[in-house]
Write a structure and sequence with these properties.
The chain has 15 helices and no strands. With 324 residues, the protein is mostly helical. It has one domain. The radius of gyration is 21 Å and the shape is globular. Helix 4 packs antiparallel against helix 6 and helix 10 runs antiparallel to helix 15.
Length: 324
């Protein structure tokens, strides 16, 4: 990994968290094309947001997220030198000045494209998504990250917001096209909102648990640089217990979805139900139990990666939802 990071292109991909950006794009694409599309088509409604405009929305989201990762690393150099000395990019492979320039370019282009997409839907106020995200990512990197709970909450909220944006933009342009849509399409709107909310809450909870686990993993460097994260203020053991409860709240949410599906279909062994149980509920529950006995940094790092996998598996459910 260290040798790879000596390559500036690889280091740049590491700086912008390229794999996370792919996941952000993937999230919005599959939620729009597999979840929203199915629900609206079942109700005789065709999606009005054209593909070109939709992919501009995705692109602007990705650019602002990339800018957020850059500025986070920019202000986090001292902490990263303690926690992850072998993978530091800013000021080691990529000059700090270039990092801040990249942040400015990505943010500017992202905001311009985001404002353009908002104008094209007929609702300029939708641009607030992009400006709020850019502002919060900057404030998070400079102040909120060092504060108890608030930084974790903001990152989790922004992550969850990614899942709701396709719904908001699609509803807005449908309403602009037909002012009676909110009345005539209320059943479709309710169904889409319900499913989208489940995805958003799931993503929020998993992201929150993951952020706390990352704080536990980074305990040493955060403490040395004056951060007041949850593990530092409340202790590692208390933080692990909080992660345990967050993951089990997520598990209970999934059980609620499972229960309602079984109640409606009056059958348990369906692909949907088995997938939710095996790919999401059981892994989340066992990870929550395991977290309580973990005490090594490498264990928390693997837990963080495993939570990212669970989040990805949750998004993959969109395909099962669409084809069943």
């Amino acid at each position: 990994m260290v040798n790879l990071l000596n390559n500036k292109f690889i280091a740049f991909l590491k700086l912008i968290r390229f794999e996370n950006l792919l996941m952000i794009a993937f999230t919005q694409i599959i939620l729009r094309n597999f979840v929203l599309q199915k629900i609206f088509l079942q109700n005789g409604i065709k999606l009005e947001l054209n593909n070109g405009l939709f992919y501009l929305i995705v692109f602007s989201t990705v650019l602002i997220a990339a800018a957020g990762y850059i500025i986070n690393d920019y202000f986090d150099v001292k902490t990263d030198r303690i926690n992850h000395p072998d993978t530091v990019v800013v000021d080691k492979i990529i000059n700090r000045r270039f990092a801040i320039i990249f942040h400015f370019i990505f943010t500017s282009i992202g905001l311009l494209i985001g404002t353009f997409t908002a104008l094209k839907t007929g609702y300029l106020r939708l641009a607030i998504f992009y400006f709020a995200a850019a502002f919060l990512l900057w404030i998070y990197s400079t102040h909120l990250k060092k504060m108890l709970f608030i930084g974790n909450f903001v990152v989790s909220l922004l992550t969850a917001a990614i899942t709701i944006m396709p719904f908001i933009f699609e509803i807005s342009i449908l309403y602009k096209t037909d002012p009676n849509f909110l009345l005539l399409g209320k059943h479709a709107i309710y169904s889409a909102l319900k499913v989208n909310t489940i995805f958003s809450v799931f993503v929020f909870l998993i992201s929150m648990a993951r952020e706390i686990i990352k704080d536990i993993e980074d305990f040493k460097g955060d403490k040395a640089t004056g951060c007041n994260t949850m593990p530092i203020v409340w202790g590692i053991q208390s933080s692990k217990i909080i992660v345990f409860f967050i993951l089990n709240i997520s598990t209970l949410l999934l059980f609620f979805v499972l229960y309602n599906t079984i109640k409606f279909q009056r059958i348990f062994f369906t692909i949907n139900n088995v997938y939710i149980l095996l790919a999401l509920i059981i892994p989340s529950f066992f990870l929550s139990i395991s977290i309580l006995r973990f005490n090594k940094s490498v264990q928390f790092k693997k837990s963080s990666m495993f939570l990212k996998l669970i989040m990805l598996l949750g998004l993959f459910y969109s395909f099962i939802f669409y084809f069943n």
